[in-house]
Amino acid sequence: MGEIGTRAGIAALALLSLAVATSAAGCASDKATGGGADAGAVSGDGVKTGPGVTATTITVSALTDLTGPYASFGKSQTQAQQLYFDQVNAGGGVCGRKYELVVRDHGYDTQKAVAAYTEVAPRSAAIAQFIGSPMITALKQRVDGDRLLTIPMAWATTLLGSRAIQVTGTTYDIDMINGVEFLTKQKGVRSGDKIGHLYFEGDYGESSLNGSKYAADRLGLRIVEQKIKATDQDMSAQVAAFKAAGVKAVLVSVGPRQTASLVGVSLAKGMDVPFVGSNSAYSPQLLGTPAAPALLKDFYYVTAGTPVSVKNPGMRKLVADYQAKYPGETLDSGVASGWSAAMIVDEAMKKACEAKDLSRDGVLNAHRSQSSFGGDFGTPMDFTFFDKPASRSSYVLKPDKAALGGAVVFREPEVSELAKDYPVPVG
């Protein structure tokens, strides 16, 4: 996810996430025994197999955050993926095999993520969810060398360039370019104005900043930077800096708790400007905190993912099935992104089965053969290349208390003129 309130609001989320961590992991984590078939082995049905694939099972892993800053997203992503694989299994599985989902919680800690990958990778046919740009960046060479199809829940450009790693949708820089153009077209920002950009140090923030600087340079704007750590919570100093600089808008590439502090303090201090966030900057749980009025007033966020409030057939079915299996649980962007990532893995397995090759190379070849993927859950994606984003089209979403998932479409997905020709940095 990038890099995902008041203290009270986040404390409540943390307690909720801790309460479900055991159940979410327990229902899926420890029952899978993996697979471990040697690459190149051929099963009795004539299908070539690899690690994580037996005659009866395909083991898929999720390296998630159930106890750290993105615990609410990690929970919903994991539950959505368990729902997806359960439904496939109920329908007979894929290639005569049933999925088993292994879940490991790294708590958004790179060292724990590396240890978890070391444990599960040898017995996994794919990783359907891996939260955190820093964690995946640390393992990028290993994942590529292992040829293990991996779906990151992170969108930094440093993750591009690996055939095994599929960054879904847009990257953070593309979203910020589309966001800056949105500000100039619909929010009155014009050449000569200053725009603030609050961002996390590290891959998430730097990738987002690359996009905002690129757009600002070409539109005659000036970026006022404020870099923070993921552990920083009070944005009063950053608001003071933005206000002193006279910014006309603020870009937000941090986590939800920092977003809540930023917009809440800004409105309290009389800085009434529009805010445009990266896809990891907002969580619907924030609408239950004191920051809600400020978020509802003039905050937007940019993403390639379709919000759960959209009433297309696929999303309606997902929402109904999710609510039936997990009654009372919050619907957030993690539900749709987790489901979509599970679908990407499943489609690769189905195509690999058609070719009678469930080895890691077979799965990757099948995945990389798909030039149009998306449907009801996001903007169309092209998986045939891995040195640029799968999509350059972004929604602009707006918080809404009455909407499922706490957000509605403010602007349908578009590729801005600047994003079309933007040379995305790789690795």
Summarize the structure.
With 427 residues, the chain is α/β, with parallel strands linked by helices. The chain is 41% helix and 16% strand.
Please tell me about this protein's structure:
- This protein is globular.
- α3 runs parallel beside α4 (133-146).
- It has two domains: 7-170 and 308-377, Response regulator (Rossmann fold, 3-Layer(aba) Sandwich); 172-303 and 394-420, Response regulator (Rossmann fold, 3-Layer(aba) Sandwich).
- It has a seven-stranded mixed sheet, with helices on both faces. Strands 2-1-3-4 form a four-stranded parallel sheet, with helices on both faces.
- It is built from 13 helices and eleven strands.
- Residues 1-39 have low confidence and may be disordered.
- The chain has helices at 7-26, 71-90, 110-120, 133-146, 172-186, 203-219, 236-245, 256-268, 292-298, 313-325, 333-354, 360-367, 417-420, and strands at 57-64, 98-105, 126-131, 150-153, 194-200, 222-228, 249-253, 275-277, 299-303, 394-399, 407-414.
- The chain is of the alpha/beta class and 427 residues long.
- The chain is 41% helix and 16% strand.
